[in-house]
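Sample intake sheet
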Amino acid sequence: MKTRYFIFYIFSFIFSVAPIFSANAQTVTKTSHKKAVKTDVVTTGTLTIRKPDYICISTDGGKDQLTMDATTFTMTMGGRQHVTDSRKNPQFATFHTVLKAVINQQAIPQGDDLTVVTKASTTTVTIVPTGKQKRQLFTSFVLTVDAKTKSLRTLRMNGRGEDYTEYTFK
C-alpha cells in the first residue's frame, strides 16, 4: 500500500514540474573563468523561460542552476546554494527589472545603475550597482539581447578580480 502512495506522489511531482521544464528550452553554454585557474570550465545545459518572470538556466546535468522565480533568485554552483530576493537586494532589483522586460519583450528601463547601448542588431545592458553595497557575489552583470527578436544572446556575471561566469544562449 505504501508503494502505491509513493508512486502516486512521484508522478504527481513530475507532472506538476513538467511545465517548468518545457520542450521549448534553448541550449546554453556556460563558461566559468577563474583568474587563478589556467583553463576555463565549459558546460552545457538548457534555458527555460516562462512568462511573466520565470527563468531557469540549468547546466552540468542540473548540478548548476540559476533560477529567477518572481523576485527570488536562487543560484546553485559547486554544491553551494545562494538565495536572494530582489526586493531586498538593489543589484538584483535592477537585474530582475531588466530580465522581466526582456522576457516580456518590453522596452528596457533606464536607471542610474544600468547602461543600455544598442549597436547594429545587439543591445547591451550593463548593470553596475551604485552607492555602497553589501558584499555582493557579482560586481556587475552584462546582458546582450538581440535588438530585433528581443531574445537573450549572452549573460555575463562578473566577479571580483577577473573572474566571471558567462552564459551563451542558442
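Comment: The helical segments are 2-17, 90-103. The radius of gyration is 17 Å.
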